[in-house]
Automatic annotation (TrEMBL):
Record keywords, A-Z: Hydrolase, Membrane, Transmembrane, Transmembrane helix
A GO MF label: fatty acyl-CoA hydrolase activity
Transmembrane segments: 66-87
CDD domains: PaaI_thioesterase
Organism, as annotated: Ferirhizobium litorale
Domain of life: Bacteria
Stated family: Belongs to the thioesterase PaaI family.
InterPro entries, sorted: ACOT13, HotDog_dom_sf, PAAI_dom, Thioestr_dom
The protein's name in its UniProt record: PaaI family thioesterase
Length: 141
């Protein structure tokens, strides 16, 4: 599985076709794209925090979902109507109010479905904050 979009192309697509992810300013940034993988960073702001000084579960879910979407797009091209059909997330550790990284790995990329593994971490990739699996539906051409 080789990517067909660059980081700059993905960012341009998100700006034009999915601008609502930047409603409160740019907090999602694609940092790497390679064969079958992408990495995205969430730089949380006040909106993403919950009482207790941690990043909220919905923010972690959003990071996993947007990163999985980017993983699919980076490998099939700019298909706006690829949609989440399932996403399961496990929250493992309480994240600090600091940047989070999500590395997504395409487990399957078929004509109609893609299955993605998403690992969310902060400083140490081996110390997961959350883990998710996602399935995306790819519209027919």
């Amino acid at each position: 599985m080789q990517p067909v979009m660059t980081i700059d192309e993905v960012h341009a697509f998100l700006e034009t076709d999915f601008p609502q992810i930047h409603t409160d300013g740019r907090v999602f940034t694609v940092t790497a794209i390679s064969a079958g993988r992408i990495t995205m960073q969430l730089d949380p702001n006040e909106r993403h925090l919950r009482p207790g000084g941690t990043v909220s579960g919905p923010s972690l879910f959003a990071l996993a979902d947007v990163a999985a979407y980017v993983a699919v797009l980076a490998h099939i091209g700019p298909v706006a109507l690829a949609v989440t059909t399932n996403l399961n997330i496990n929250f493992l550790r309480m994240p600090k109010p600091a940047p989070l990284n999500c590395t997504c790995r395409l487990l399957k990329l078929g004509k109609r479905l893609a299955v993605i593994d998403a690992a969310i971490y902060q400083e140490n990739p081996g110390e997961l904050v959350a883990h998710a699996t996602a399935t995306y539906s790819i519209p027919p051409k």
